[in-house]
Amino acid sequence: LRDQGLADIQKTADLDSINKIRVRLLGKKGPITNVLRGMKDLSAEERPQVGKFANQIKQDLQAKLDEKKSQIEDDLLQAKLQSEKIDVTLPGTSVAQGQPHVIQQVIDQVVDIFTDMGYQVAVGDEVEEEEYNFEKLNLPKDHPARDMQDTFYVTPSILMRTQTSPMQARMLEKHDFSKGPLKMISPGKVYRRDTDDATHSHQFHQIEGMVVGKHITMADLKGTLELVAQKLFGDQLQVRLRPSYFPFTEPSVEADITCFNCMGKGCPICKGTGWIEVLGAGMTHPNVLKMSGVDPNVYGGFAFGLGPDRFAMLKYGVEDIRDFYLNDVRFLNQFDQKG
Ligand code: PHE
After folding, report:
1. Which one of 4, 197, 311, 335 is most buried, counting C-beta atoms within 10 A?
2. Adjacent-strand bridge partners of 205
3. How would you classify the pairing of strands 203-213 and 158-160?
4. Which atom of ligand 1 is nearest to 302's Cα?
5. Residue from 143, 195, 182, 136 nearest 163 by CA
6. How far apart are CA 171 and CA 121, in angstroms?
7. 153 in the Ramachandran plot: left (φ > 0), alpha (ψ -120 to 50) or beta?
8. Based on the number of CB atoms within 10 Å of its own CB, is 207 exposed (0-12), middle (13-18) or buried (19 or more)?
9. What is the pLDDT of residues 100-115, one digit of tens each?
10. Can you name the residues that pair with 127 across neighbouring β-strands?
């Protein structure tokens, strides 16, 4: 019985048959149980011997069953691991990741520099009231300087803003000067009725800046521009101011920085002059302050407007402004910050 049992167990290959054999050999109706049950009919001498013998067989079979069972379970686990194996060294499916548009990258850099200096960021609307785009900036209806900015009108009094400067008037009106000076930066899109070519786009970007408070001078303007230019392009950069004209600043200036390509030596980018024009600026005109309810006898300040499109063209040597607006990813991916 024992040898036959052991051989049967050895042959089994699944848990189901193991259970069946266990019931057949060791169950309540099995031969071993029968023998043990029949012990009462045996003589006192026979009883311990038979008992010992039957128990030994029972134990052997039990051990063999347990051994076989765990072996089958082991085999099953191995097979499962084998079939579900994952090769972690295989290259994964890469997920295409975008990045901010190159113009947005320039805007973010400039805005970061100004917010570090305590400027607030004010975002205006691209559809603007004529009053804020012109009148409140000291450009009355018949002012010839309106010709400087060809305009898309939505209605006779609503237009696509030609500049971010309307935010000067809006922020002057809003600001509580008892809490300290107004320091704001306002980036965004602007529109002009220009024919698109390599250097003109009917839609482009500006970053407006304004500081108005007490005792603010042109030296503050120059120092601020110098600091920003140096943070953007390098410590050696200088700023030069040239007289210019804007209706909302008096005096008005155009600011040049040392050509960051040749560092003032003269190259094709700066057309041999060593300088590149980067923005318009000036001291806020008293009329602008007055129209926004700010007393020009107490407060004064400066404003500037720079073009991130031009910045990006100069910085990356882009020759056609239209490239920024074609959404050709082959072009845009060149400005991947991730490198
Ligand atoms: N808004 C002017 C322009 O579009 C730039 C500017 C802004 C000039 C602020 C002076 C002060 O040309």
Report:
1. 311
2. 189
3. unpaired
4. 11
5. 136
6. 11
7. beta
8. buried
9. 999 999 999 999 999 9
10. 160
Which residue type occupies 110?
V
Strand duo 275-284 + 249-258: pairing: antiparallel
> In whole angstroms, how large is the CA radius of gyration of the chain?
43
Residues with CB under 6 A from ligand 1: 163, 165, 246, 249, 280-282, 303-305
Closest C-alpha among 122, 221, 128 to residue 168: 122
Distance separating alpha carbons of residues 71 and 122, to the nearest angstrom: 73
Half-sphere exposure of 274 (CA within 13 A, CB side): 7
| Burial readout 6-29 (b: 16 or more C-beta within 10 A, e: otherwise) | bebbeebeeeeebeebbeebbeee
5: nearest Cα among 27, 259, 99: 27
Helix (H, G, I), strand (E, B) or coil at 153: strand
- The CA 165 to ligand 1 mean position distance, Å, reads 6
> Structure tokens of 20?
């069946």
Q: To which H or E segment does residue 129 belong?
A: strand 127-129
| CB of 139 closer than 8 Å to CB of 146 | yes
ipTM over 0.95: yes
DSSP 8-state secondary structure symbol assigned to residue 38: G
Q: What is the pLDDT of residue 190?
A: 97
What is the per-residue pLDDT across 132-143, written as a single tens digit (0 to 9) for each? 999 999 999 888
Edge-to-edge strand order for the sheet containing 239-246?
Answer: 120-121, 182-191, 203-213, 300-306, 275-284, 249-258, 239-246
Helices 102-116 and 308-316, axial angle in degrees (round to 10)? 110
